[in-house]
Amino acid sequence: MRRIVGLAALVATGAFVALSALSAARADTVSFAGSFRIVQAAHAAETGSQITEATARQITEATARARAMAELTDRRPDVQGLTVAASQFARGVTQVSTKSGFDFTQGTPKDVWLVELTAPAQAGFAHVVGFSVVDAETGEVTASAVGAYND
Questions:
Q1: Can you give the pLDDT at residue 10?
Q2: Does residue 78 surpass a pLDDT of 60?
Q3: Count of domains in the chain?
């Protein structure tokens, strides 16, 4: 009988610990910056958007903007007049999307620069926009796209 009571107490304690761990888990955070909808891993969102000293020394905002611009002008030489409209640092990003259809998902949360570009109306389209995701540590453009649309 003692063995059964001890086993029941052990199982109850294990269930309590498991439930406590589940309730302590935090959900990913969704935020908005400019045209971007950003999903950040829970642990990354808790630290805010402060750039760590190590990351800041790797890729600056100016470098991220330049790499985004170079990537999109190389990919789409037909789009004239692209300029950087905005950029935003985001920590622990797992997904980025925009209303205009840009969607990027990565399996491992990473610190990134999100760069938004615009161009004047052209080729019969009223709005021309570009988006890039730049890895804040390596400077690699991990995703980019240009889209054009009318209202």
A1: 37
A2: yes
A3: 1
Phi, psi of 121 (to 5 degrees): -55, 140
Contact call for residues 114 and 98 (beta carbons, < 8 A): no
Q: What is the pTM of this model?
A: 0.70
Nearest Cα residue to 112 out of 82, 143, 85: 143
Q: Would 1 be classed as within a structural domain?
A: no
| Domain boundaries, position 39 | 27-149
Q: What is the DSSP letter of 76?
A: -
2: in domain: no
**Residue 40 token pair:** 């950040």
C-alpha distance across the termini of the chain, in Å? 75
* AA letter at 42: A
Radius of gyration of the chain (CA): 22
Q: Where are the alpha helices (DSSP H) in 25-106?
A: 42-46, 53-58, 61-75
> Which tens digit of pLDDT belongs to each residue from 90-138?
888 999 988 777 888 888 899 999 999 999 999 999 999 999 999 999 9
